[in-house]
Structure formats: structure tokens, C-alpha cells
């Protein structure tokens, strides 16, 4: 499948290479870019850009032959990146970011002028958000826009350094803030932001201590940052700057941004932090401040929409797997051993699902997205009886937000307003013990709750790479004049998304997804209701 558009200096084309997946199609590669000399005007782009199928905001009539175009126009608007030039009339200047050293204005050592260097991303470059063409709405995990499950391209903006920038680096004051709970990789991102800012020539870089609180709490001073200072911070977990929840009053934060004369704000955090970052971006616009607010999605919960994963998630899964392994060893070595592990994840079961999958040692995985009963013919307890009878031991992994309907609500919230869950782990431990006592079957229950151990550690290799790229791209995004965006990975490509599109709801495990089905295949568990 290919679409091409002739333009003044060459072909701007979208090339698709499809691989088969039992009736459906998966894109092995896809890109949309401007070859050298090709000047694609927005109005001449071959295919209009389109949005996530499930979240379209326009009413679509699929009998209308132009529905696709309407859908795509809507997508194009929604995924267009907010820029400071939407509000101010600014002229760009050539970038100061270059990887070539000792370059003279006339060119590099080979005489190649700077503007011919290919290291930059074109503003019209795009990456595809979705790469599977479902042939039917009944295909496993299908996300369709229309009843025929038509193929609609969903392009998003490619991240990276631009040839032209909208800030004078030596006049820039850049600030970094880390909010919410801890997460592996925070220090890696801080470090890369500082490195990249310095590469552009920024000298005034500060850290805001303890999350949004650092903007208004008296006595908390901003911390000057430099490559020298942050060189080794990635070797430890936690946040070099400190984190906090709650207390985000947008107007006070923006007062503080204004008073401190901050031009670029890099905000590292989860969905709450992103909502805060977007509110700051809006307020800065309202006040006509030339400030770029760029977020980097951090959370072990992996609960931010549209992106492949948030940084820290991979490491949390790896750590969680260790807890499962210990539970397995304990259960395996006990007579009628039952290993029970509770894992974090505010309202999503991603950590529990992925740790169950990666360990391969879990017999029952319980997540908040899939309701279950403990008692009765189809309950979890009856299945545990069966497992003890047939294999002699078993391992259960439960997400902290799972089975809340079985418990009395705590009614409590944290400083950010997030619900504090009742303890499903302790509840299950007691229920299992009582059940086996009641039926007169011995059971040796070993309960492990690793709590903060899954997040208070340094990033693993794959998270460290993700953090490196996301941190660097955040700086490129700010210099390119974007604001109200997040630097993330979608379908293995590094992109920018408008924050508004990722905060509409927390991302949750889809019980109809192939991944959850794979988890069920691995555990062999039945439906528990
Ligand atoms: N809707 C919102 N508008 C403005 N600020 C918000 C909003 N939601 C949360 N915040 C602020 O963002 C910060 C972080 O939020 P929160 O504690 O929910 O963590 P998070 O970013 O979701 O990360 P984590 O995944 O660790 O929970 C807090 O200071 C909170 O006050
Ligand atoms: O750090 P706190 O406030 O105890 O919050 C714990 C929560 O933070 C997370 O670690 C990240 O959102 C959740 O998995 C967990 O529910
Ligand atoms: Mg959150």
C-alpha cells in the first residue's frame, strides 16, 4: 500500500510494508518524511492525519463518503502540537545544537555546510501510532473506527532536534521538576536534560526541589544544575531533586515561574503531573508568557494513554519479578505452599500482568480491570484447592487495586486526591488461611508485599535508554518552540504528543487484549465469576 504526492522538489511519500498476521496486517515499517529538496506544505500532505480510533471527538456518519476525511481533520487538529508561535510572532534562528565539533561557519572538516547536515528532524516528519490493520472488528483486540474496520492512518509528530529554534540559548533559564511518586529513571532523565541543554549552550539550569511544592513552599530553594553536578546521579535510584504529591495551585506556580524568569520548564511525572503541566501551559498562555512546558512521562504504573510505556515501568516489572520468584521458591518448598504477592499499580494492573508474564511462575494473576470472586464454585479459593491437589503448591499475584469491590472502602485520599486503596493483599492472605482451615486442608501461606522496593531502585538498561532519549527529546521539543507536549515512545518511535490527548483518562489493561489473553494462557487460570 503506498500513497504519493508530487511536490515542487521531489516526492513526499508514505511507504507501507505489510506483514501478515493470520488475516490481519501489521506494518513492518512505515514512515512519512520529506526527502531532500521536497517542500511539503501542510495543505499538500498526501493523507490527512488521523486520531486514535476509540477517542474521536467528532460525530461520524459512516454512510457519509467523507467520514474518513472528517475523522482525519479532527485528528489533525487534536494532535497538532501547541507552539509558542501560536501566541507570539517570533522569528526562528538556526539551531545551536550540533553533534559535529570544531565546525567553522563555512562548514565542517569536509567542507559540508551546517545546513546540509542530516541530523535534524523535519517538522513534517510523522510516525504511525497504530500499525495493525484489523480485517474485522472480531479480530482479537481490534480497535476499529467504523463497522468495517477500515484502515485509517493515525500519524503523530516525530520527536528530535529541529534545524531552527525559538530561543537564544545564552538567554534561557531552564527548570526541571519531578512530581508524584518515585520512579526508576528520574535521575537519568534529569541528567540527560541538563546535558542536552548545555549542548545547546544553556548556562542557567535549575532544579525545583520536591515537585510542584518547590514552586511555592517558602524555604525551598532552586538548585543550580550543571553537567558536572549531575554526571553520576543516574547511578542511584530516587530523584536528585526530590518529589512530592499535592499542593499544586496553578496560579501560584505560574507566579513563581514568572518571578523566577523561567523560559523552559521540564516536568517529569505521571498522569496527575501531566494534568498539572497542562494547566501551567494554559496559564502561561493566558498571561502571554513565552514559556515552553514539556513533560516526560514517568510512572511505574504505565497508566498514561497512547504511549508504549512510561519510563520506570520496565524496571518495576523486573523488581516485581524478584518478589514473585521468592514467593515461588517459598511455596514450592513448603507442603501445600501458597505464595501470594501484592504489587503496586494505582488503578491499572500492568505491573502485575507483566511481572506474571515475565516470571512465568504465577498460577493466578488478579488485576483491577478484571472482576473476580473469592468464594463460591467459580471463586479463586476453589481454584487454589484444585492447584494444591494437582500440583501441590501455587503462586498468586494480585494488583493493589484489584478486588476493591470485595473490601470496605477506605474513603481516604492522598495529598494529590488519589484514592487510597483498602489492602487486598492482607485480605486475601486472611481469606486463604481461613478457607483452608475451614475445609481441613493444610495450606502454608507465604505473603510478600514488596511495596516501594519495585520503584526505589535505579533504572535497568532498557529504562536507562528510554530515559536518555526522552530527556534529550524533551529539550529538543522546547527549543523547537513546542509547549504543552510530552516526549514519549509510540509504537517504538519517539514522538511528541499534546498533553491534552494523554490525560483524558488513565490507561488500563484491556481485558480483550492479546496481552491479557497471553497472561491467561501462561497462568492457565479460569474466569473467576
Ligand atoms: N488535575 C490536576 N491539575 C493540576 N495538578 C494536578 C492534577 N492532578 C494532580 N496534580 C498535581 O500533580 C502532582 C502529581 O500528581 P500525582 O500525585 O497524582 O502523581 P502522578 O503524576 O500521577 O505520578 P504517580 O504515577 O507517581 O502517581 C501533584 O503535585 C498534584 O497536586
Ligand atoms: O508514594 P505513595 O504516595 O505511597 O503512592 C503509592 C502509589 O504510587 C505508585 O507507586 C505510582 O503511582 C502507585 O503504584 C502506588 O499506588
Ligand atoms: Mg498517577
Automatic annotation (TrEMBL):
<keyword id="KW-0021">Allosteric enzyme</keyword>
<dbReference type="GO" id="GO:0005737">
    <property type="term" value="C:cytoplasm"/>
</dbReference>
<feature type="site" description="Important for substrate specificity; cannot use PPi as phosphoryl donor">
    <location>
        <position position="272"/>
    </location>
</feature>
<feature type="binding site">
    <location>
        <begin position="344"/>
        <end position="346"/>
    </location>
    <ligand>
        <name>substrate</name>
    </ligand>
</feature>
<feature type="binding site">
    <location>
        <position position="181"/>
    </location>
    <ligand>
        <name>ATP</name>
    </ligand>
</feature>
<keyword id="KW-0067">ATP-binding</keyword>
<feature type="binding site">
    <location>
        <position position="271"/>
    </location>
    <ligand>
        <name>Mg(2+)</name>
    </ligand>
</feature>
<dbReference type="GO" id="GO:0005524">
    <property type="term" value="F:ATP binding"/>
</dbReference>
<comment type="pathway">
    <text>Carbohydrate degradation; glycolysis; D-glyceraldehyde 3-phosphate and glycerone phosphate from D-glucose: step 3/4.</text>
</comment>
<protein>
    <recommendedName>
        <fullName>ATP-dependent 6-phosphofructokinase</fullName>
        <ecNumber>2.7.1.11</ecNumber>
    </recommendedName>
</protein>
<dbReference type="GO" id="GO:0003872">
    <property type="term" value="F:6-phosphofructokinase activity"/>
</dbReference>
<comment type="subunit">
    <text>Homotetramer.</text>
</comment>
<dbReference type="InterPro" id="IPR050929">
    <property type="entry name" value="PFKA"/>
</dbReference>
<feature type="binding site">
    <location>
        <position position="400"/>
    </location>
    <ligand>
        <name>substrate</name>
    </ligand>
</feature>
<keyword id="KW-0963">Cytoplasm</keyword>
<keyword id="KW-0324">Glycolysis</keyword>
<feature type="binding site">
    <location>
        <begin position="299"/>
        <end position="301"/>
    </location>
    <ligand>
        <name>substrate</name>
    </ligand>
</feature>
<dbReference type="InterPro" id="IPR022953">
    <property type="entry name" value="ATP_PFK"/>
</dbReference>
<dbReference type="GO" id="GO:0006002">
    <property type="term" value="P:fructose 6-phosphate metabolic process"/>
</dbReference>
<dbReference type="InterPro" id="IPR000023">
    <property type="entry name" value="Phosphofructokinase_dom"/>
</dbReference>
<dbReference type="GO" id="GO:0046872">
    <property type="term" value="F:metal ion binding"/>
</dbReference>
<feature type="binding site">
    <location>
        <begin position="452"/>
        <end position="455"/>
    </location>
    <ligand>
        <name>substrate</name>
    </ligand>
</feature>
<feature type="binding site">
    <location>
        <begin position="270"/>
        <end position="273"/>
    </location>
    <ligand>
        <name>ATP</name>
    </ligand>
</feature>
<keyword id="KW-0460">Magnesium</keyword>
<feature type="domain" description="Phosphofructokinase">
    <location>
        <begin position="174"/>
        <end position="476"/>
    </location>
</feature>
<feature type="binding site">
    <location>
        <begin position="245"/>
        <end position="246"/>
    </location>
    <ligand>
        <name>ATP</name>
    </ligand>
</feature>
<keyword id="KW-0418">Kinase</keyword>
<dbReference type="InterPro" id="IPR012004">
    <property type="entry name" value="PyroP-dep_PFK_TP0108"/>
</dbReference>
<feature type="active site" description="Proton acceptor">
    <location>
        <position position="301"/>
    </location>
</feature>
<keyword id="KW-0547">Nucleotide-binding</keyword>
<dbReference type="Pfam" id="PF00365">
    <property type="entry name" value="PFK"/>
</dbReference>
<comment type="function">
    <text>Catalyzes the phosphorylation of D-fructose 6-phosphate to fructose 1,6-bisphosphate by ATP, the first committing step of glycolysis.</text>
</comment>
<keyword id="KW-0479">Metal-binding</keyword>
<keyword id="KW-0808">Transferase</keyword>
<dbReference type="InterPro" id="IPR035966">
    <property type="entry name" value="PKF_sf"/>
</dbReference>
<comment type="similarity">
    <text>Belongs to the phosphofructokinase type A (PFKA) family. PPi-dependent PFK group II subfamily. Atypical ATP-dependent clade 'X' sub-subfamily.</text>
</comment>
Amino acid at each position: 500500500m503506498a500513497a504519493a504526492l508530487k511536490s515542487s522538489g521531489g516526492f513526499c511519500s508514505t511507504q507501507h510494508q505489510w506483514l501478515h498476521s493470520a488475516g490481519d496486517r501489521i506494518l513492518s515499517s512505515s514512515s512519512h518524511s520529506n526527502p531532500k529538496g521536497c517542500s511539503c506544505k501542510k495543505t499538500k500532505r498526501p493523507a490527512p492525519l488521523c486520531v486514535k480510533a476509540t477517542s474521536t471527538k467528532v460525530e461520524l456518519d459512516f454512510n457519509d463518503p467523507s467520514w474518513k476525511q472528517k475523522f482525519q481533520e479532527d485528528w489533525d487538529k487534536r494532535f497538532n502540537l501547541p507552539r509558542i508561535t501560536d501566541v507570539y510572532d517570533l522569528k526562528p534562528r538556526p539551531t545551536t545544537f550540533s553533534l559535529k565539533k570544531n565546525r567553522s561557519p563555512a562548514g565542517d572538516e569536509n567542507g559540508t555546510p551546517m545546513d546540509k547536515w542530516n541530523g535534524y528532524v523535519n517538522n513534517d516528519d510523522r510516525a504511525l501510532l497504530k500499525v495493525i490493520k484489523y480485517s474485522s472488528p472480531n479480530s482479537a483486540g481490534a480497535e476499529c473506527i467504523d463497522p468495517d474496520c477500515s484502515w485509517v492512518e493515525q500519524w503523530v509528530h516525530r520527536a528530535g532536534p529541529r534545524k531552527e529554534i525559538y530561543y537564544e540559548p545564552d538567554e534561557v533559564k531552564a527548570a526541571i521538576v519531578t512530581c508524584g511518586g518515585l520512579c526508576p529513571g528520574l535521575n537519568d532523565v534529569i541528567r540527560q536534560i541538563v546535558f542536552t541543554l548545555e549542548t545547546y549552550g544553556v548556562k542557567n539550569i535549575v532544579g525545583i526541589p520536591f515537585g510542584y511544592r518547590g514552586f511555592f513552599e517558602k524555604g525551598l530553594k532552586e538548585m543550580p544544575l550543571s553537567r558536572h553536578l549531575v554526571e553520576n546521579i543516574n547511578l542511584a535510584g530516587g530523584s536528585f531533586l526530590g518529589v512530592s504529591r499535592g499542593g499544586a495551585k496553578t496560579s501560584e506556580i505560574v507566579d513563581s515561574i514568572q518571578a523566577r524568569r523561567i523560559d523552559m520548564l521540564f516536568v517529569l511525572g505521571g498522569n496527575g503531573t501531566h494534568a498539572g503541566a497542562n494547566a501551567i501551559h494554559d496559564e502561561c498562555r493566558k498571561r502571554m508568557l513565552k514559556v515552553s512546558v514539556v513533560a516526560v512521562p514517568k510512572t511505574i504504573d504505565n497508566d498514561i494513554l497512547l504511549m508504549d510505556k512510561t519510563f520506570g515501568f520496565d524496571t518495576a516489572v523486573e523488581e516485581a519479578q524478584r518478589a514473585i520468584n521468592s514467593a515461588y521458591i517459598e511455596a514450592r518448598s513448603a507442603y501445600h505452599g501458597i505464595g501470594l504477592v501484592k504489587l503496586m499499580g494505582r488503578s491499572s494492573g500492568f505491573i502485575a500482568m507483566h511481572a506474571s508474564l515475565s516470571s512465568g511462575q504465577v498460577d493466578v494473576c488478579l488485576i483491577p480491570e478484571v472482576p473476580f470472586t473469592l468464594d463460591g464454585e467459580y471463586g479463586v479459593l476453589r481454584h487454589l484447592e484444585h492447584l494444591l491437589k494437582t500440583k501441590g503448591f501455587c503462586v498468586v499475584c494480585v494488583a493493589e487495586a484489584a478486588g476493591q469491590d470485595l473490601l470496605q472502602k477506605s474513603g481516604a485520599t492522598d495529598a494529590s486526591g488519589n484514592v487510597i486503596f483498602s489492602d487486598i493483599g492482607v485480605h486475601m492472605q486472611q481469606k486463604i488461611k481461613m478457607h483452608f482451615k475451614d475445609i481441613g486442608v493444610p495450606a502454608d501461606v507465604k505473603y510478600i508485599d514488596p511495596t516501594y522496593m519495585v520503584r526505589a531502585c535505579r533504572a535497568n538498561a532498557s529504562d536507562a535508554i528510554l530515559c536518555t532519549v526522552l530527556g534529550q527529546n524533551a529539550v529538543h521539543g522546547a527549543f523547537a518552540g513546542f509547549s504543552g507536549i510530552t516526549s514519549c515512545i509510540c509504537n517504538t518511535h519517539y514522538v511528541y504528543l499534546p498533553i491534552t490527548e494523554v490525560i483524558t483518562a488513565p490507561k488500563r489493561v484491556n481485558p480483550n487484549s492479546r496481552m491479557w489473553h497471553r497472561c491467561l494462557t501462561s497462568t492457565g487460570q479460569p474466569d473467576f465469576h
